[in-house]
Amino acid sequence: MAAAATRSLAAVAPLLMVAVLALCSGSAAGQQLQVGYYSKTCPAAEEIVRGETARAVKGSPDLAAAFLRLHYHDCFVQGCDASVLLDSTANNTAEKDSKPNGSLRGFDVVARVKDQLEAACPGVVSCADVLALMARDAVALARGPSWPVALGRRDGLTSSAGSCGELPPLQGDVALMIQAFAAKGLDVKDLVVLSGAHTLGKAHCPAFADRLYATNGCAVDPALDGRYADRLRMRCASPDAGENATSPATELDPGSCATFDTSYYRHVARRRGLLRSDASLLDHRFTRAYVLKVATGRYDGHYFRDFAASMAKMGSIGVLTGNQGEIRKKCNVVNSS
Description:
Structural class: mainly alpha
Order of helices and strands: HHEHHHHEHHEHEHHHH
Oligomer: single chain
Radius of gyration: 20 Å
């Protein structure tokens, strides 16, 4: 089985390269990003990132989801500029301390990666590129696809919690999700494809408890399978559990939350998508058709190619290049003037 999986990925890899390169040459931002960008200035950069990411995921497999989520949350708020990594100051609350980002993890691992890169190639590799590489490597380490990452991003100089309203709402319906993605240059296919990242990771009660109880004039979510809802109530025992950020974590993809595969779509197809945004994929003609297609289990290679292409598009949102921004020495603070 392992040999078959290796052959499958080997067959997919050339197509991933074609898809990613086509996307990178198809936008103004992408034209300034290059695969192999550090081949001369820091040839060991990708190896350094991969090695530290692998060590972290081996020690704590759920970090794969954390690294992927960091990149996503970074790109959707003022572009892929590593602003999500900056610390708050006395006069400014940064993105990482906003409510939507309260459960983000992995900052310490990013700092270790950056320290190693600075030791090898001082002032060369950006924190924004580190996030893009760690997301790719995390997916591959979780038995998902790998793809060439176009690099050359620079780091932003600002970060504001007030900008985090740009993040797609987990409790949003499909229309709101499409609108949030369109605002970043992503289409409805990117939405349903990138939603598949929920095959990794877990969520706490605040993200879904509103679907389980009839409160404030709102009924129990009829889009949620009844038996699954009963099970979820055992973890979120009251409507108030939604206010408890320390509530038990629930797998987004039950039984497979540490493996990048297509089982997420099978759960959504059975009305067992944990988040409202997951369930709403069945409410749109295109996203529903895509979910049901991938849920058959016969299109894994096709989905992996789609995921690589959508990640490349997401990774080019609002990038800083050339002389814009800076290359931070430490990812959590801007360089001293």
